[in-house]
Write a structure and sequence with these properties.
The chain has 131 residues and is an all-alpha fold. The protein has seven helices and no strands. 68% of the residues lie in helices and 0% in strands. The radius of gyration is 17 Å and the shape is globular.
Length: 131
């Protein structure tokens, strides 16, 4: 019992000490809501994908649940989840979309997430002056 309490205290202390940048209030949270909803309420495939990917990176199951819940507020954790999608599905728009559908996300959610992930993960520097 003491070990569990000690581990819990260590975990929450590390969360406080490693506090990350909070997302601005005007950030569109459809990505976060869609991932969280499907993680907890979907058929389980998204949850298995995220858990397996993050376990390979050294995360504990309890930490993964907390991490997913925090993606609406924490930009570092949001990027960790974006990296999971990237690592497993790459950056090909059609391939990403089809894989999100295969996780039993709706077509609308899959399209939105595909656009969001491609835009966030693969930002292009098209800021050259056009003359």
């Amino acid at each position: 019992m003491k070990k569990i309490l000690f581990a819990t205290v260590i975990f929450f202390t590390s969360l406080i000490l490693n506090a990350q940048e909070v997302l601005p209030k005007n950030v569109n949270d459809e990505f976060g809501h869609a991932v969280i909803y499907n993680y907890w309420n979907g058929n389980g495939n998204l949850r298995l994908l995220i858990m397996e990917a993050l376990r390979k990176k050294g995360y504990e199951p309890m930490d993964i649940d907390v991490l997913v819940e925090s993606i609406l507020k924490n930009s570092k954790n949001r990027n960790i989840i974006l990296d999971v999608f990237h690592d497993y599905f790459g950056y090909d728009k059609e391939y990403l979309y089809m894989n999100l559908l295969s996780l039993e996300m709706s077509a609308t959610t899959s399209k939105y997430l595909t656009d969001y992930i491609i835009e966030e993960k693969y930002k292009t520097s098209n800021t050259k002056d056009k003359k």
